[in-house]
Amino acid sequence: MVVKMRGCAVGGGSALWGHETPTRQSAVIDASHQSIPGLNQDQSVSYEKLLNIHNAFHQGQYLAVVNFDISSLSAENQVPARVLQLRAQIANGQAKDVLAGVKRKGDAPDFEAVKAFALLSTGQTSGAVKAIENLAESHSENATVQLLGGTVLQAAGKTEEALSLLSKHQGSLDAVALIVQIHLQQNRTDLAQKEVQAARKWAQDNLLVNIAESWVGLRVGGERYQQAFYVFEEMAQAPGASGTKSLVCQAVAELHLGRLPEAEAALEQAIQRDSEDIAAIANYVVSRVVSGKGAGEKQAELESKAPEHSMLLDLQEKSRMFDQAAAKYSAKVAS
After folding, report:
1. SS (H, E, C) 56-107
2. Is 93:276 a contact under the CB 8 Å cutoff?
3. d(CA 286, CA 48)
4. Distance in angstroms between the alpha carbons of the first and the last residue of the chain
5. Which of 37, 127, 130, 284 reaches 20 to 30 Å from 121, CA-CA?
């Protein structure tokens, strides 16, 4: 059995982050600025708190994001903070709770986009797509609509529509990160690299840029494997880090570097933290197969918990193709 190493994405299963210029009110923030000219001290403190929530979300610390007290944030930062909390709940498997909490009509487009994403997360893809298409007609300038709308559309196989919506962003690192992921899924590493290089010019050493650049590095290979490893290792070992996503990404880099015991150890640690983390289980299966130990019960667990996982579907397709090829030949017995 041949298993391809599975990639990693930080942020609720996909590149779901928010970023927007601070002069516009939307549920996304600019994570590339440490100080904002024109803000008073209280506004700056509020904004820094929002950045802390934002970074915690990117690092996969979803419970910390959900439990963060946002009551002291300024009015303009309340919406982006609440959206991050709702997305963290969805990442923690609480999409139904999110739907129940934001199902009122007439909400801000940011929360309507969150509802659509929650629908997608509960398997209601057609309803999610319809909601996003309606939002895109009336609120395509809203950064949360762009980001979560792009996520929903890409998940539904509407890649061109997703990229078209995301292209409307105004300096959004989150949109850039999602565009990078989409291009990597298209096997267009050149376009993904172009997006990262353009963002690096204005975002400099931002966390999201480092993450996106590391995704590309895992595809490019060579010395870029080690560079990606350093980024994910630093995230996994950050003070207070308790999520699994950074560990999974670190393990993927270790697999590419041929450090199989270290990769398996990182994945075991991730599974100990969250036994329901599908990405951790899938990559653990890969690490076991690559090391010659066999997938064992973990593959059966993956088949039970996520029967539609892309790796399983890929294996099924490869098995079907093998059977078709084998059927063209008949065994010959020497007399």
Report:
1. HHHCCCHHHHHHCCCCCCCHHHHHHHHHHHHHHHHHCCCHHHHHHHCCCCCC
2. yes
3. 39
4. 32
5. 284
Q: What is the mean pLDDT of residues 15-33?
A: 33
Pair of tokens at residue 135: 């939002």
Radius of gyration of the chain (CA): 21
The DSSP H or E segment spanning 320 is helix 310-326
Nearest to 245 by CA among 22, 50, 2, 17: 17
Residues 149 and 113: beta-carbon distance below 8 Å: yes
Whether 62 contacts 13, CB under 8 Å: no
Torsion of CA 38, 43, 46, 48, to 10 degrees: 20
Q: Which residues contact 194 (CB under 8 A, 6 or more apart)?
A: none
Q: What is the pLDDT of residues 81-115, one digit of tens each?
A: 999 999 999 998 999 999 998 866 556 899 999 99
3-class DSSP state of 312: helix
pTM for this one?
0.82
Cβ–Cβ under 8 Å, residues 211 and 177: yes
Instruction: Return all residues near 35 (Cβ < 8 A) that are at least 6 apart.
Output: 44
Q: Report d(CA 230, CA 83) in Å as an integer.
A: 30
Res 34: pLDDT:
40
Task: Supply φ then ψ for residue 72, to 5 degrees.
Answer: -90, -5
What's the CA gap between 237 and 216, in Å, rounded? 22
Contact 160, 169 (CB under 8 A): no
Pull the structure tokens for residue 110.
Answer: 């940011």
- Between 310-326 and 278-290, two packed helices, what is the crossing angle to 10 degrees? 40
Cα–chain-centroid distance for residue 81?
18
